[in-house]
């Protein structure tokens, strides 16, 4: 297995950061161009089966029409405080009128929609019984728009593009984003260089248009990379995050974007950016989320944040927080500025949800430079990563577990930190959400390695390891093995270097007994503290290096 070096950026944006961002995005002019859909919800109850066939009979008590697809993205931008120019094409039919009415009720103007006669507006009708979707019927024309509509749409884009603050493409592959429209977008972008975010089923089609960010979901990223989905019985790769993580550069290359925000539903997301370490966004996993369009919310919030110049990790956390608001809702949903504020007020940001303990690593602090421009600055002291007390450790892991975070634990001396350690710790972090490191105390190192060790005191080792973004928490232990810590942490994953085997690892049975998994990571050859010390001794013996 190829040994990748991963180093997540871990931000800790406070509620204040996200609130200020919410203020700053108000009234931005955002173009949303893409496939407008009318989402219909026929809601009712079912208490019997049909006589003709064993299918439920639903007594419909309510019907609702909601903007869907690109129209949902437009509504999300609006409800977060942006002004929207929504460009799409609909038919001259009842569904088209219902969609315009639904948009207007949500303060999104339909005056930029092209009406193509004879086209059937896209509509997706869900039949629900007691909040459960039983079936979805899809109607509407999915062929490319006709030439006249295409020209009208291009003209509209040409008129509006110069004055916008950012643009979103929401392309479900239903005929709005023709090659000519994409080419026009590319020309306009070359001229104006706006924040341009693309959410498209076929991202490869946007590779050369100067995209700022793309937002593929799991299926889209698999398609882009031409790789199969993760199988449940895969022994070496256990999560989507782990599967996608090595592909950051490839995704950026294939999409031509500067930023790729890959959303992985209940696993949150990974944000890749050229020249930066990947950033994770977290979510409270909702196993049976009935939301449609969390991705639309994510892309809307991400675009607004990038448009005011927020640093990418902050923009991503803002987007993840907005998505967290909608995943609690049923059906096609939006996140409003008020809901987001309330969510933040309750201390439930994407990073802090339920734990109250995050807030370590890169602070990504920012200040407002002009009403619309944010800039990253790092003048906050990172909160302590070191845990000095076992009760505090227990409280911490309990809250992480409650928030659905996957806890990875490893332990070691980390006496003179070297490249092998860094690579190994980054890899360990990638196996879950939170990495806790058990550090041998000075006495326990003396017992294990002799009286000349450690070279660096516990205090110094704590300080050095705290500087790594991948390490979330550190705790020292006096004993020869970290068994006591393992009993408290009950790690989901216990990690050691490949110089051990499961058989020679004394902690392995305990970890498995507690329901955790033991992972042995690839060993980086020729990197060890002992080797470094030997080398220094050799050189000193030759009289070199004084
Ligand atoms: N089941 C879930 N539990 C918790 N959070 C979720 C869940 N599904 C989605 N999310 C949140 O919403 C974000 C976007 O979700 P997802 O990856 O499903 O996008 P998508 O497939 O584009 O969505 P859609 O097509 O419904 O718009 C995720 O990164 C995550 O923050
Ligand atoms: O891609 P297919 O399934 O054909 O169409 C899109 C739908 O699944 C839904 O997508 C969600 O993101 C939302 O945009 C929602 O409004 C929309 O109806």
Automatic annotation (TrEMBL):
Region annotated Ribokinase, chain positions: 1-351
Q: Tell me a Gene Ontology molecular-function term this record carries.
A: ATP binding
Please report the stretch or stretches of sequence annotated as the Carbohydrate kinase PfkB domain: 29-335
Positions of the catalytic residues: 296
Any transmembrane segments, and where? Answer: none
A GO biological-process term:
ADP-L-glycero-beta-D-manno-heptose biosynthetic process
One Pfam family assigned to this protein is: CTP_transf_like
What are the alphabetically sorted keywords of the record? ATP-binding, Carbohydrate metabolism, Kinase, Multifunctional enzyme, Nucleotide-binding, Nucleotidyltransferase, Transferase
- UniProt-listed InterPro entries: Bifunc_HldE, Carboh/pur_kinase_PfkB_CS, Cyt_trans-like, PfkB_dom, RfaE_dom_II, Ribokinase-like, Rossmann-like_a/b/a_fold
Reported EC number(s) for this entry are 2.7.1.167, 2.7.7.70
Show the GO cellular component annotation of the record: cytosol
Pathway membership: Bacterial outer membrane biogenesis; LPS core biosynthesis; Nucleotide-sugar biosynthesis; ADP-L-glycero-beta-D-manno-heptose biosynthesis; ADP-L-glycero-beta-D-manno-heptose from D-glycero-beta-D-manno-heptose 7-phosphate: step 3/4; Nucleotide-sugar biosynthesis; ADP-L-glycero-beta-D-manno-heptose biosynthesis; ADP-L-glycero-beta-D-manno-heptose from D-glycero-beta-D-manno-heptose 7-phosphate: step 1/4
Q: Where is this region: Cytidylyltransferase?
A: 409-546
Recorded catalytic reaction(s): these are: D-glycero-beta-D-manno-heptose 1-phosphate + ATP + H(+) = ADP-D-glycero-beta-D-manno-heptose + diphosphate; D-glycero-beta-D-manno-heptose 7-phosphate + ATP = D-glycero-beta-D-manno-heptose 1,7-bisphosphate + ADP + H(+)
Family classification: In the C-terminal section; belongs to the cytidylyltransferase family. In the N-terminal section; belongs to the carbohydrate kinase PfkB family.
What the protein does? Catalyzes the ADP transfer from ATP to D-glycero-beta-D-manno-heptose 1-phosphate, yielding ADP-D-glycero-beta-D-manno-heptose.
Q: How does it assemble?
A: Homodimer.
Stated name of the protein: Bifunctional protein HldE
Species name: Chlorogloeopsis fritschii PCC 6912
